[in-house]
Amino acid sequence: MSGNLPAKGNINALREDYDNPDLLFVGTEFGLYVTVDGGKEWKKFMTGLPSVRVDDILIHPRDRDLIVGTHGRSIWICDDITPLEQLKSATSDLKLFDPRPAVLWKNDAQAQRHAANREFKATNPQGGTAINIMSKSDMGAAKLEFLQGTTVASTMNVDIKAGMNRFQWPMTRVPTAAATAAGGGGRRGGRGGAAADAPAGEAGTAAAGNPDAQQFQGGGGGGGGRRGGATGVPFVAGGGRGGGGGFGGGPVDPGVYMVKLTIGSQTFHSSVDVLEDIWLRAQ
């Protein structure tokens, strides 16, 4: 099953996806590789990671983050590989993937502390949830709407490029006239995301300031790996450090939202669960 993997060096780790048996990741002496067709063709999947030895690979069973142990760059995480898992069902020219659940995180006072130099720390994952769209060609301007019943709670204007597009939904309401006059909600969430050297048919655009990398075409929160961005938790319910998710009318309520993508005369539908943060204990 070597396919077109490099002939030199060892395979140190192999991981098959939980849901899609055609999605495999291998760690080699010279980086991480992915196949979406059961090993017929392999592509480097680095998301800004240098060509270092990869010793271990795990897929988080709940969050579907790809976690990689390397010799040289410590622990590396690619957030949310669910669109790769759903590629087996992508048969049309455009695919709106089912987003993973989003959490309205509460502000944690302990998150304000500063880590000492010898403490291990890393960038927080993106807040909200990623809306992933794959297109076989440039489609241009499009609109994402998030509805509860027939009521539009939130909107995003996006630009669909050829390949895999990723837009981070900050879970903010459509601002009311009063909110607009008052200047809207909290600060914008941090721009995160890193580059992704995606499989064939999923090429993104060159990452700003990182021309040797590629990223999911992003809006709002950015793309794949945890690199850069704000240090606070973004899109915190009610604002706070890390941002309130944009100049909207405040965060949406927990619940199930229909995701509606409109491109010209075409519409596509999905849904997303917005969960309340029930894990933060009162201090």
List keywords for this structure.
283 residues, mainly beta, 2 domains, five-stranded mixed β-sheet, four-stranded antiparallel β-sheet, 17 strands, 4% helix
Helix and strand arrangement:
Blueprint: E1 11-16, E2 24-28, E3 31-35, E4 43-44, E5 53-59, E6 66-71, E7 75-78, H1 82-85, E8 94-96, E9 102-104, E10 129-135, E11 140-148, E12 151-160, E13 163-169, H2 177-182, E14 205-207, E15 210-215, E16 255-263, E17 266-276
Parallel strand pairs: 9-17
Antiparallel strand pairs: 1-2, 2-3, 3-4, 5-6, 6-7, 8-10, 10-13, 11-12, 11-16, 14-15, 16-17
Can you describe what's shown?
The structure is a single chain. This protein has 283 residues and is mostly beta strands. The protein folds into two domains: 1-78; 92-276, no CATH class. Helices cover 4% and strands 36% of the residues. It has two helices and 17 strands. The protein has helices at residues 82-85, 177-182, and strands at 11-16, 24-28, 31-35, 43-44, 53-59, 66-71, 75-78, 94-96, 102-104, 129-135, 140-148, 151-160, 163-169, 205-207, 210-215, 255-263, 266-276. The strands form five sheets. It has a five-stranded mixed beta sheet with strand order 9-17-16-11-12, with no helix packed on it. It starts with 10 loop residues before the first strand and ends in a 7-residue tail after the last strand. 41% of the residues are buried.
